[in-house]
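Could you join me in thinking about how sequence relates to backbone shape in a protein? We need material for that, and I hope you will provide a protein of your own picking. Once you have written the record down, we can walk along the chain together:

…
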Amino acid sequence: MRPIGKGGMTRWANFGGWADKGEQDQHNCNPSEKHQPTLERPRHEGNGFVCGALDASLPCVLMANSDSFRLGVLGSGRGSNLAAIADAIGRGDIPAEITAVISDVQDAPFLQHAERLGIPSQFIDPGKYRTKLDDAAEQAYIAALQLARVDLVVLAGFMRILKGEFLRVFEGRVINIHPSLLPSFPGLEAWKQALDYGVKYTGATVHFVDQGIDSGAIIAQETLPVRDEDSPESLLERIHSAEHRILPGAIAAIARGEVELQGRRTVRQNP
């Protein structure tokens, strides 16, 4: 039985986190120049927070000036799950801050969401492979997340398979949102798989990431009916709405130390 989050894995050095702030300065993270963040933003203070938003009227809720639970969010697409996480932090529903946003797609709307909100963000070239990071890119992603001292890596529509060294460094600290009720329909276009198969119910799943494909321990799920009139597009839109509900809730539970891993099962505990 292993506690996840506060009082458990948070900043365990052997999982790639930081024991304290001073340790960051002693760590030699020097990704190549093309992997360095390119977005420089003014910082302003408000409501007890330090914020990097370009617009000082935006709520300063994402870069708390404290030693809070830290999230690194990876994505490849439109960024709607990132926006849902940011909104939940802004409402006070998630006791955490986003300290890194990274995409493998240089012009992804995902990065535009981060820029608008003033969240530290960058594109890191994924390398020569289509479905995974090459070795150099993997090291650059690891270095960027370690530099941001993340406690939890959230894959929010990140379309690259993570294995090997990345999962060793962040063992037990990577979660993913998947558009089906796992273990049914792992892999790509899960909503279309469900529709083509003819199931009457599908949904969304938050799970830990392991060496398999969408095979890690399940943290949260939401079920949706498949309607007779559904198209792949309409079904995916409703699944996205479910994702926006369960992903912030799962992150909040982990940040509060309410999730314990028991073999393949996760169990919610009172903090």
Observations:
- The first helix runs from residue 21 to 26.
- Residues 7-66 have pLDDT under 50 and may be disordered.
- The two ends are 15 Å apart (CA to CA).
